[in-house]
Fold carbonic anhydrase.
Amino acid sequence: MSLVSELMEHNRKFVEQREYESYLTDKYPDKKIAILTCMDTRLVELLPKALNLRNGDAKIIKNAGAILTQPFGSAMRSILVAIYEMGAREVLVIGHYGCGMTKLDAGAMVAKFRDHGISDQVLSTLEHSGIRMERFLRGFESPEEGVLHSVKIIRNHPLMPAAIPVHGFLMHPDTGGLEIIVEDYRESAAL
């Protein structure tokens, strides 16, 4: 059985047995928070459990490294929608130790593109169109740097309400332990 067939079979049973009922909520975050975090598989269940979040408590936006690569990208748009349309009143940026974006090698990624059949012509066309692989595939030196980078972009965004605090944290992906990097109820010299 293929992966898609397995997923569809499980989904059919899930709906037929009305297992979704324990997850019913509306689209507004009960705890009024938006979280930008990493897509790391270790955080899928751990992060909500470690923060005592249930379905419906938060808007959770995930990407590689919890990094905002540009101030007008989809992750920032999601944060703004969470605030202006969904009622979020605080933003949490949660990175983690052992992140795959730490010291990501853009050159090695481009080599993998080539290994998977992406032609030099495609890569050259992207470069000439202004897509710089070093920037597009930007990682960070440390997870703290990544969190501070994203907090700074969000906090300084021209469409971000000044009254919305933007906090930064690092999570231990084995234990769920959380460390505060930036608590925005006070001014931080780190930014």
In short: Residues 14 and 20 are 7 Å apart (CA to CA). The chain has two domains: 32-98+145-186, 105-138. The radius of gyration is 19 Å. The mean pLDDT is 94.
